[in-house]
Each structure stands twice: as C-alpha cells, then as structure tokens.
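Exercise 7.
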Amino acid sequence: MNANSTEHRMGDESGGGGSEPFRPGYVRPVTSPTVRTSQVHFDVNPTLPEIVAYAEKRGWPSSGFSAVSVSWQELHWTADGWKTVNKVSSTDVPCPITNGHFTVPVKPGTSVEFALHVGLQCRAPQDTAGAREVGELWFNDAGKNYTQITR
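Solution. The predicted structure, written as tokens, is:
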C-alpha cells in the first residue's frame, strides 16, 4: 500500500480498524476539539409544589396514580436576550443533565436566561408497566424566565 492507496484496513489489523483508508503517518483523532462548557442548576423532581399542583389538577392522585415522575427535560436558554434560542434536552446523547445541572456550551461566568419544559407521567405505585397518563409543564418564573450566572 502507498499514500494514495484505496485499500482499506480490516478490523483485526493493527493501527486502526473498520473501513477507513490506510494513510502512512495518519493518526486518527480520539477526542473532539475542546468546547468551553459551564452549567446552570435547576433540580426538577416530583415533590416540587408546581408538579404536585399539576398532578392534583389533572386528578392523578385521586385516580390512584400517585407515583409521579419526570420523564424528560428541555432547557430553553439564551445568552443574548433571546436573539438566539438554544435547547439542551435529557434525550440528547450524551445527556447534558446530571443531578439538576445542565451543561451548556458557554464559558463559566456567562449570564444565561432560561425556561425549563418538562414531561411528566403518572402511574399507580404498584403498577410497573409504565405511564397511565402523561403531561407537560413549563417552569419559567411566571413568564419572567430565570437568570443564572453559569459555573
């Protein structure tokens, strides 16, 4: 093989694998370029008064569906007064949420305005077969949105 070769390595050969072409001296990158990130914190859990009130309004506890859980979360945020809108979601891979800390691609110390959109589901405590009913709720400080300095 030479530098202009169209031959491909097989997975069991040393120096690489899969179907990438062999190029002498080429080193495949193992990490992506570094992106500065920081975090905002908003811990959503079923015991928050807003979630309890939502479940009661929907009649979930009175119907026997007292096990309420948060099924997904979306942080809608901006760092420029809503000229651009960004979103990170619990369904993103890798997940940007860990214990109520949302990782966003801005440098630490950035002022971020945000609202949080969450999915809720309920079931009976003894029911292990998933959700009986689902719903959605916005956390947005009564329409004013939240503001935090990222860490």
